[in-house]
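[Automated response] Your request has been received and processed.

Submitted sequence:
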Amino acid sequence: AGNMLAKNLSFMANADAAGIVLGASPIDLSEATQAQLTVSVRDAFGDPAVGETVRLSVSDDAGDQGTIGGGEVLEGATNKDGQMKATFVKAPGGEGQVVIRAELLGPGGEVLRETSNVLYLSGLPEGNTLYLPVIRR
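Generated structure:
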């Protein structure tokens, strides 16, 4: 019975990967040629979801702004930390902005969760300043 319970828990955690987060560094690629992408997947308990299938894609329809792993789309599995890492490489002359989308795939390639992040190839837009909160104690 213990084995059956473990199977059910494993299935539940798999089907219920609750969160997907996409980090990119840097997001301003005016002075850089590439950004490190990290997709983090957590299960319903907040623990790393290992072996989940993740698809990263670049929103650029023409395919001339940049690539992830040498193409427009890259699929992979999350590691023991619940992460999949990849590199976005800006194409020569790439400008404007691209949206990087991360999708958590279920059985049969069904999209369970998705998130996205914007990369600014020619610098952050005017007036788009990032203000960090000031914390006083």
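Summary generated for your ticket: Residues 100 and 110 are 19 Å apart (CA to CA). Residues 2-15 form the longest helix (14 residues).
If you did not submit this request, please reply to this message.
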